[in-house]
Design a protein that fits this description.
Blueprint: H1 2-34, H2 45-54, H3 56-81, H4 84-90, H5 95-136, E1 140-144, E2 147-152, E3 155-162, E4 168-176, E5 182-194, E6 197-208, E7 213-222, H6 229-233, H7 244-256, H8 262-283, H9 298-325, H10 330-355
Antiparallel strand pairs: 1-2, 2-3, 3-4, 4-5, 5-6, 6-7
């Protein structure tokens, strides 16, 4: 339908404009925070620029709900101010068709946000941290699709899966001697951060000499290199910036090792529900552009959108904290704020429809 496409294009333009402004401001403040690191090690202007640009996708995802709300309010408000909505209604467009058209555009925005969040952000955030860490610290060697390579003194370490808090799975350590000759290799199924350092578990160590090769199996050993938890922390992304599959794998890892996974489970379900949040915020613009709101100016619409965004953020934080105190199941706790706004949106739309 021509109207649906026209409406969607306007919503996309409005959302893109708001996103550009919000992300630009966020990047500016990030630059201010990170500029002091320039000059440390090999962290120069080029590395600094790469780091800043690679942080942008995560900011897009973070700001998408607010951008969808503000963008929809501005674009639909302009259509109402120009009497275009009235013209469409005169040509046979019902309120239900209008709501459906906005919902379709909101679904596309939600889909875009999900794709960026699940496929782009994990790579961009990991690459950004690797660029910064490898430039400042000479230990980090490279990040590959299959894992992470780290140079630690005379050891070369390959980590297939590095989780937040420094925990890891499938670690290979190559011990080099004089003239960079391989002396031994160590393979560990997992590594857990303890107070005494990095503890390797389910270890298979192979010793190489000129005369023989010997293999030793141990339940666990303490890694004796200089790999610090601070360095590992600089290389991993936060749980909310991981892909859904990686976050689920991390939760499984924590459960298998009898570690607390409540925060990670909450982050997982918030990621699952995030597309729904984007849709709700875009649809929430509908009742504010119908009826008397068609005569409101742009400033009023912007203030309305910002206030609604702030209210959502506050309610989300408060209800999530309350849910944690009440020990609510993670998938229920993560859904409550969005569900509350769904009901609020439905109530406002229903009231506007009755008035009209």
């Amino acid at each position: 339908m021509i109207f649906s496409r026209y409406l969607a294009i306007n919503i996309f333009k409005g959302t893109a404009l708001v996103l550009m402004i919000l992300v630009s401001l966020s990047l500016f403040f990030t630059m201010i925070q990170q500029i002091d690191h320039i000059g440390r090690g090999q962290y120069g202007a080029w590395q600094f620029t790469q780091y800043i640009l690679l942080r942008a996708p995560a900011m897009v995802v973070d700001f998408m709900p607010l951008a969808a709300l503000l963008g929809s309010i501005l674009s639909l408000g302009n259509l109402a101010s120009n009497s275009e909505l009235i013209a469409f209604q005169s040509s046979g467009m019902s309120v239900n068709k209008f709501i459906l058209a906005v919902s379709q555009a909101a679904f596309v925005l939600a889909l875009i946000a999900y794709v960026i969040s699940d496929f782009v952000v994990p790579y961009s955030e990991t690459t950004a941290r690797e660029i910064k860490a490898s430039s400042i610290s000479s230990r980090v060697s490279m990040q590959s699709r299959k894992g992470l390579w780290i140079k630690d003194k005379s050891n070369i370490i390959f980590i297939q899966r590095l989780f937040p808090d420094g925990n890891a799975r499938n670690i290979e350590i190559y011990h080099l001697g004089d003239n960079d000759r391989l002396q031994s290799t160590t393979f560990a199924r997992k590594a857990i951060i303890k107070e005494q350092g990095w503890v390797l578990q389910k270890v298979k160590k192979t010793l190489l000499t000129e005369s023989k090769i010997s293999v030793v199996n141990k339940k666990q050993i303490l890694y004796e290199g200089g790999l610090s938890e601070k360095l590992l922390q600089s290389l991993v992304v936060k749980p909310r910036q991981m892909s859904s599959s990686d976050l689920f794998t991390y939760i499984t890892f924590l459960d298998e090792n009898k570690l607390n996974s409540d925060a990670e489970s909450l982050s997982f379900w918030q990621k699952v529900y995030s597309p729904l949040t984007v849709m709700v915020m875009a649809i929430l613009a509908i009742p504010f552009v119908l009826g008397s709101q068609r005569n409101s100016n742009t400033g009023q619409r912007i203030i309305t959108g910002i206030l609604l965004g702030l209210v959502y953020v506050i309610i989300d934080k408060v209800l999530i904290q309350l849910g944690e105190q009440l020990n609510l199941i993670a998938f229920v706790n993560a859904l409550i704020p969005t569900l509350l706004f769904i009901l609020f949106t439905a109530f406002l739309i229903h009231r506007k429809v009755i008035k009209n």
